[in-house]
Queue: 2 jobs
Job 1
Amino acid sequence: MTLARLLLAGALVLPAGLSAQAPSAPPCQTPASRQFDFWLGEWDVKNPAGQVIARSSITSILNGCVVKESYSLLNGPYKGESYNTFDTRTGRWHQSWVDNGGLLALFDGGLQGTAMILEGDGADPKGAFRSRMTFTPLPDGRVRQLWERSDDKGATWSTMFDGYYVKRTGTS
């Protein structure tokens, strides 16, 4: 096989998007890709009355391209995980939530002011609904997560979950 044919064969098996040149900037390091970093950390999750109801570990994985949450209730078997990533094609954030009850919930959105607002459609025995999660960093270092539901396409909202993420003592 000639050198030209060998080089052509090698080029054909390279995955699309790969090149011999180094990328100009590391992937997932743009300011938009870092917008959800305020949520990173080891957290106690408290209800509005201040009682710790869950633990949550929010980590940056896959070279900083994904923000992963591992959530676990303290008094019960409920566990869930979310995978959050910035989609450079759409300029929006995407979250996939999965739990140990078989739930899959998909959300899209972005930063509005200082809050990350993600929305998605769902269905349950009551019918179709719209869901909205708002993650707001607070001046004291906490993060408030408000999860709401609308049964009328966003005209009115009811609270499904209202929690405050508080950094666990001894964690950064």
Job 2
Amino acid sequence: MRISGFLALLLFIQGGVAMASDIYVTVGVKDAEIIGRTNKALQAAVDYVAALGGGTVEIGPGEYWMENSLHLRSNVTVRGQDEATVLKKCDGLVAPLILDGDYGEEQFTVADPSGFKVGMGVSVFDDDAGGFHTVVATIIAADGNTFRIDKPILADCMVRRNARAQTTFPVISGYYIENARVENLTVDGNGDKNPYLNGCRGAGIFLYRAHGTHIAGCTTRNYHGDGISFQQSNDVVVEDCVSYDNTHLGLHPGSGSQRPTIRRCRSYRNNLGLFLCWRVKNGVFEENELFENATFGISIGHKDTDNLFRKNVIRSNRRYGVYFRNESEAMAGHRNRFEENVIEDNGNPEEGAGVVIDGETHDITFVQNTITDTRPEGEKMQRYGVWIKEKASRVTLTGNQIRGNIESTMRNDASPESVTVE
């Protein structure tokens, strides 16, 4: 059922029978209920539907110029027209602060205010305030070269530590929401004309405490940072998405995100394909393709435990296919299971391996995987199928096909009893 915006509002006001799932609003460059080609038109549609309790915003074909994030709302589906709907980030700029940005302060002052304006997205940080200490906010007022923002600064950003403001933000952003959905659209990060924004606060699509969000059929490309990142967000599903040519991480679940599902996605030509950040637990990662990334196909580390990796293809990454990071026993990525994956043709002329298990990592299981280098002799770069380092333990390899690697099927630097091969 499709109902016009006016009728939806009338029914809502009169206590009518329209359900939230019935609310449907179109936005586009033409032939839509809300006409526009910037983030303002898109946000107006999303906020309107959210105010009615939820529903669907359909974005028509065209390129939309994003001077701030499209902020997702609970129970609202945002749907595009696949590659025909492109949300492109505006050109970025950077300006040094001339006054310290103090913790909790909700404004910043720059020497040159050119390019900053009310309604624009902005991030504020210094050389010591990376990660979650970067604030990403909206400019809500201007007084000369001082700009007020809608969120407090999250660390002391000191002029002596290169404090700066820059117009960087996620193209699509969801904070403190539930059950949002993004479908069938393309995000272009315009990375050549933007400075870097770290993946704990930004990406082409970024979620923070956005539980139950579903991202399907989306493309994120050319973002100066991560493609898709979600932090402290439980039960997120990312499926049938493509993330490529981003300067950092293609897919980045992290910071305590529980029970993520990432399936049938392709992540390639990023710095790293799939990065499990900190405390990613009980996730399912299946039928993904992770290839031609500059370092690893998959990286697992800090308290990333009890995850299942099944039927993925991890190939032609320029260092290792799968890397368990060097963590202490208390912090390592234990009890992860790999089933029926293809891990092939990874490495560079200096180093390469299909799987590297580093740190005091234990209870890792590989079952019925193919770990190989298929390239001709003289072109192979995957030196070992599996490399188990000194402090790892309780690694089980069952029914795997490991062949074609330069030096050996397996290099075990741990104690012999730490590894079981069947």
